[in-house]
Amino acid sequence: MFEHRHQPLIPRKAFLRRQLYFSLVALAIILGSLVIGIAGYHFLEGMSWLDALLNAAMILGGMGPVDILHTTGGKLFASVFALYSGVVFLVVAGVLLVPGFHRILHHFHLELDGGDKDAG
């Protein structure tokens, strides 16, 4: 997926395609997590689909829950989902930043070796 250290930098257009791919992966992680949250709030807490969406989105966004939870299952789910959301935040940030970090480090490595400059 990434070029080896002795290969030249990929062209800018190819890099943007790579960044788009990683952005779509990050979006899929977020949407999958949102579906998990909606289902948990709906089935374990008995919230309507819309209220479940709101609560799941607020937890994933780091804002906190909106509605008061009444069931033990809902409270346990919300606790686990909040911890999970913190990890998802870090994973998504990493997925979005990896192509850029790789390109920067690869560029500096090529300069140290006297390799090719940016191809795009």
Short description:
73% of the residues lie in helices and 0% in strands. By secondary structure, it is mainly alpha-helical. It has one domain (12-113): Helix Hairpins (Orthogonal Bundle).
What does this structure look like?
The model has no long low-confidence stretch (mean pLDDT 89). The chain has a single domain, classed as Helix Hairpins (Orthogonal Bundle), CATH 1.10.287. Helix content is 73%, strand content 0%. The protein is an all-alpha fold and 120 residues long. The longest helix is centred in the C-terminal third of the chain and has 42 residues, at 72-113. The chain has 3 helices and no strands. Helix 1 packs antiparallel against helix 3.
